[in-house]
Specification:
- The chain has one domain: Dehydroquinase, class II (Rossmann fold), CATH 3.40.50.
- The chain is 39% helix and 18% strand.
- The chain is an alpha/beta fold and 144 residues long.
- The two termini are 14 Å apart.
- Strand 3, helix 4 and strand 4 form a beta-alpha-beta unit.
- The relative contact order is 0.21.
- Bound molecules: ligand CA2.
Length: 144
């Protein structure tokens, strides 16, 4: 079973700026963490990052046919994108929403997520460990 791990805009800059908010791990570190976690859970992962909303929508559509779960940090599109919500609503498997930072301790515009109403779980403020937690939760939901 394959879980899509999708990262949205600017997350390619992880580890390069704002370590006080996002930590020191790079996107490559996150992807390694996801591969190792998934392997321990008996899952495969497909890790993708894009700065473009439509590309994220396209990967969610692909997951409808070749994925069984989605772990998504949509970055700033979390707070703006009905298109990503609509795509996730067309996906049948478990969806876990991740935010590295605690968005609720930050600006008010980060407190609302279009994705949370569709997500089966939301993990915020746990740093990049949130991705591993998200994969564990997807594995649990896939087994139940
Ligand atoms: O906390 C998160 O994971 C966010 O999804 C990150 C988004 C932000 O817009 C959301 O409100 C919360 C931004 C990602 C930007 O990532 C950077 C990493 C390093 C340097 C600059 C940006």
């Amino acid at each position: 079973m394959t879980v899509f791990v999708l990262n949205g805009p600017n997350l390619n800059l992880l580890g390069q700026r704002q370590p006080e908010i996002y930590g020191r791990e790079t996107l490559a570190d996150v992807e390694t963490l996801c591969r190792e976690t998934a392997s321990g859970l008996g899952l495969a992962v497909r890790c993708e990052q894009s700065n473009h909303e439509g590309q994220l929508v396209d990967w969610i559509h692909e997951a409808r046919h070749t994925g069984q779960g989605i772990v998504i940090n949509a970055g700033a599109y979390t707070h703006t994108s009905v298109a990503i919500l609509d795509a996730l609503n067309a996906f049948d498997g478990p969806v876990i929403e991740i935010h590295i930072s605690n968005v609720h301790r930050r600006e008010a515009f980060r407190h609302h997520s279009y994705i949370s109403g569709r997500a089966d779980g939301v993990i915020v403020g746990c740093g990049v460990q949130g991705y591993a937690l998200g994969l564990q939760r997807v594995a649990t939901l896939l087994r139940s």
